[in-house]
Amino acid sequence: xxxxxxxxxxxxxxxxxxxxxxxxxxxxxxxxxxxxxxxxxxxxxxxxxxxxxxxxxxxxxxxxxxxxxxx
Length: 71
Ligand SMILES: [Zn+2]
Description:
Blueprint: H1 2-33, E1 36-38, E2 45-47, E3 52-54, E4 57-59, H2 62-70
The structure holds zinc ion.
């Protein structure tokens, strides 16, 4: 009986770990799909979805957007 319980636990762990790895690989491929853009002010590379967009230009932060507009 003990061996059966161990087999069941092992199978459950295998399924749970398998699911975790699949989730990781999905999020990794989403990261790879994320387009990188460059901050016009400091040249820092950031993800397009995290960047602040203004008139076709990208900025890493609101401060850099404002700094560039003051020029
Ligand atoms: Zn910047």
